[in-house]
Design brief:
It is built from 14 helices and 21 strands. It is α+β, with helices and mostly antiparallel strands. A 6-stranded mixed beta sheet has the order 3-2-1-4-6-5. Helix 2 runs parallel beside helix 3, helix 5 crosses helix 9 and helix 9 packs across helix 11. The termini are far apart.
């Protein structure tokens, strides 16, 4: 299939009326993809925009942006530039940190329901497969990059994944296309560059179809991963269908392989990083913990808790800062260190509400409950079966020296409201 036909076919599969975005770095691959998609959208009218992520990691970054603006101007495509903040303290390395910053930029700019096209090609796929194999990845890692997938309510599409770099170069030369070369692409201290410039050329010299064969293996691994995903989804449904909360007894009744598969699948459903093998083994060892015990296993970007017969999978959330407090009149949305809450709290009867004081739990708080008199807040939260780690993030609402309500700021819900007060919808 010719490149224009390939693009037309991919375009036909995007939701009608929704915007198509092209991630534009300014290099050969993305510059050619934008040119081809712009031509296709002139044949088949569709909203088209380009997105350039300015990483700011090298002096040439500003030149990349200038080139992208010129290219988009010639093609008549609106360009949006997102400046990324690359956090090198996460332990993910430069490539991983830059990828995370890119994804954050994509999520900020591309609206849910839209489609983002990426310009990876067959040689990129072969490199990704090799990297995964060298890390000892399982089927999910070896599946490398799928041609299309759902991502945070958006669609990520790689229409050039079956095309070789040589074919793209030939098409760019035919079109007289100009592009920029990222100087960091020559740095063989980066794993992907070492594979690209040293390993794959050596493999291709011995096996001319090496890149195509490796890409084909990635496709087969993707098919196997799809089947495993269907199996994991069936197990998840049998265990209640909640990816964030799995019953430990039923999970422990599965074979070890299916336990690991289901936890990985649940993490993927929740958009959480998959636990490394050692962390996953530690986690599954906790399934037999006493019902009254609280077990916690942490890995980069996620954690798991075992409590009262349930395995909870969640992103790490900060606690309320010690000493934090704020004043609030109860008549409008409030913002806590854990996020905004569109909640209201008013006294019963006429009159103007007094100023309320909000602060974290400090222990020993008591409040009145309808028909039950004064009760200890700690015991009330236990009665609500609120997990211990969530209890550390509740906000206590005081009027003077009296507790009048307790708020879950993460769930944006009132846990307890004392007699004489009422919560209202916004």
């Amino acid at each position: 299939m010719s490149l224009p036909s390939l693009i037309d076919s991919a375009l036909a599969q995007t939701p009608p009326g929704r915007c198509v975005w092209v991630a534009l770095s300014g290099g050969l691959d993305s510059a050619l993809l934008l040119t081809l998609v712009a031509e296709a959208c002139r044949r088949h009218p569709r909203p088209l925009r380009a997105l350039h992520v300015h990483h700011g990691l090298q002096a040439a970054a500003d030149d990349f942006e200038v080139h992208c603006r010129r290219l988009c101007s010639r093609q008549g495509v609106p360009l949006f530039v997102e400046r990324a903040e690359v956090d090198l303290t996460t332990g993910r390395g430069l490539e991983g940190a830059a990828r995370e910053a890119r994804h954050a930029a994509f999520a900020r700019r591309v609206a849910p329901g839209d489609t983002l096209w990426l310009a990876q090609h067959r040689d990129d796929q072969a490199e990704t497969f090799l990297l995964a194999a060298l890390r000892g990845s399982g089927v999910r890692g070896l599946a490398a990059m799928p041609p299309a997938r759902a991502w945070r309510g958006r669609a990520l599409v790689r229409p050039l994944l079956v095309v070789s770099r040589a074919e793209l170069e030939a098409e760019a030369a035919r079109l007289g296309l100009a592009w920029v070369e990222d100087p960091s692409n020559a740095d063989e201290r980066l794993d992907r560059n070492y594979l690209r410039h040293t390993v794959l050329p050596g493999l291709t010299a011995r096996w001319p179809h090496a890149a195509a064969a490796l890409s084909r293996s990635a496709v087969l691994a993707g098919e196997a991963e799809g089947l495993l995903g269907e199996l994991a989804e069936l197990d998840l449904e049998r265990l209640g269908g909640e990816a964030a909360r799995l019953p430990t007894a039923e999970l422990a009744a599965l074979s070890g392989d299916r336990q690991r598969l289901l936890v990985r699948h649940a993490c993927a459903r929740l958009d959480l990083p998959t636990p490394p093998a050692a962390r996953l083994a530690t986690l599954l060892d906790q399934l037999s913990s006493r019902r009254d015990a609280e077990a916690r296993v942490v890995w980069a970007g996620a954690e798991a808790r075992v409590w009262r017969g349930w395995l909870y999978l969640l992103a790490p959330l900060p606690s309320l800062p010690e000493g934090w407090e704020m004043r609030w009149r109860g008549d409008g949305p409030l913002r806590t260190p854990l996020g905004g809450c569109d909640v209201r709290l008013r006294p019963n009867g006429p009159g103007v509400a007094a100023v309320l004081r909000l602060c974290p739990r400090r222990g020993g708080e008591r409040l009145a409950l309808a028909g039950r008199g004064s009760r200890d807040l700690k015991r009330r939260l236990q009665e609500l079966e609120m997990p211990p780690w969530e209890r550390q993030r509740v906000v206590v609402v005081w009027q003077g020296e009296t507790v009048v309500a307790v708020l879950d700021p993460v769930g944006e819900r009132w846990l307890v409201v004392a007699p004489g007060w009422r919560s209202e919808a916004p």
